[in-house]
Amino acid sequence: MKRAYDVVDGFGDMYVELPSEFDIHEYSMIEDFCYSLKDSQERDTLLRVIRGKGAFRRFKDTIIDFGLRQRWFDYRDECYKEIARQFCEDHGVEYVD
Q1: Per the record, a Pfam family (predicted)?
Q2: Region class of 67: left (phi > 0), else alpha (psi between -120 and 50), else beta
Q3: Contact assessment for residue 84 and residue 94, using Cβ atoms and an 8 Å cutoff
Q4: pLDDT digits (tens, 9 = 90+) for 21-72
């Protein structure tokens, strides 16, 4: 609670605003994941299903059908770790990998 008061009371320059959901583009992660697949049928199918309304639902259903669910989660986790690393490096924040 004290930190919130610090920000309000003018000490906000001591803190760095975290990226929002608008700064982190999960759709780009999904698209990059699709392009990373070696199997052309899986890659092409996923690239097709992520177009248009309902893309996230179709992607989820299709990775389950292809048995790629855990592989996607691992890929996404690595993307988020890289975003966190880059954020820390950009703002001089120490971190433990």
Answers
A1: UPF0158
A2: left
A3: no
A4: 888 899 999 999 999 999 999 999 999 999 999 999 999 999 999 999 999 9
Long-range contacts of 23-27 (CB under 8 A, 24+ apart): 24/80, 24/83, 26/76, 27/55, 27/56
Q: CB–CB of 43/35 below 8 Å?
A: yes
Rounded Cα–Cα distance for residues 4 and 12 (Å):
9
> Which token pair is 11?
């000490």
The pLDDT value recorded for residue 11 is 60
Band of residue 17 on the pLDDT scale cut at 50, 70, 90:
confident
Question: pTM score, two decimals?
Answer: 0.80
Q: How far is CA 69 from the centre of its chain?
A: 15
Token pair, residue 1, equals 């609670």
CA–CA gap between residue 15 and residue 6 (Å, rounded): 9
Rounded Cα distance, 58 and 30, in Å: 12
